[in-house]
Automatic annotation (TrEMBL):
Native organism taxonomy: Bacteria, Pseudomonadati, Pseudomonadota, Alphaproteobacteria, Hyphomicrobiales
Keyword terms, alphabetized: Oxidoreductase
Record protein name field: Oxidoreductase
Signal sequence segment: none
SUPFAM superfamilies: FMN-dependent nitroreductase-like (SSF55469)
Domain of life (superkingdom): Bacteria
Family in the record: Belongs to the nitroreductase family.
Nitroreductase domain span: 19-60
UniProt-listed Pfam families: Nitroreductase
Record GO terms (molecular function): oxidoreductase activity
């Protein structure tokens, strides 16, 4: 077992996996673009089916001319806190395979992009930042805002920054500002059979 950050695993794992969580309280301090590119570089080394690398990252730094546009593309409840992040990233995946597969739809593009997000979140922690993935984004508006072709899927948003005291959040979000726990492993991993639960 591993214990850290008010969490405990059932098996011995690296503490990094428990230390990574998705806070909402960010300081809003400026991130150096080279620090963000280091995090994105780690993300783009994720495993990929047939090495298609379907993930794409569209980002803005807090204080840049694009910042308000990126914040406006979040649903309102996420705008409330994510506006204080140091960077906002939209994760997009290419839903069709490359030329060698004659334009067939990829079955694993979202799976691969999700793996890249996981690498991003872990590298953020290793770099002293926190990343919070969000499904609460305006998917169709993001497609239009960045002229993303229909062959790409807008997957999620990511707020990235340094951790602030939870007092910067609304009362509702202050109550939620704790590392979440996980179901017991036995509820999600099954030997030799599938259990719908």
């Amino acid at each position: 077992m591993t214990k850290t950050n008010s969490r405990e695993s059932q098996h011995p794992i690296d503490p990094l996996f428990l230390d990574r969580w998705s806070p909402r309280a960010f300081t809003g301090e400026v991130i150096d673009e080279s620090d963000l590119l280091t995090i994105l570089d780690a993300a783009h080394w994720a495993p990929s089916s047939a090495n298609q690398q379907p993930w794409r990252f569209v980002y803005a730094l807090n204080g840049s001319e694009d910042w308000s546009k990126f914040v406006d593309l979040l649903v309102e409840s996420n705008q409330e806190w994510a506006k204080n992040a140091s960077a906002l990233i939209y994760v997009v995946s290419r839903s069709f395979n490359g030329d060698f597969s004659e334009g067939r739809k990829s079955y694993t593009h979202s799976f691969d992009a999700g793996t890249a997000w996981g690498y991003l979140a872990l590298q953020a922690r290793l770099s002293g930042f926190y990343a919070h993935g969000m499904g609460g984004i305006k998917h169709e508006e993001i497609h239009k805002a960045f002229s993303i072709p229909d062959s790409y899927r807008v997957e999620a948003g990511v707020a990235l920054g340094r951790l602030a005291d939870k007092s910067v959040l609304s009362e509702r979000n202050q109550e939620r500002e704790v590392p979440s726990l996980r179901k017991p492993l036995s509820e999600v991993a099954f030997r030799g059979k599938f259990i719908a639960n």
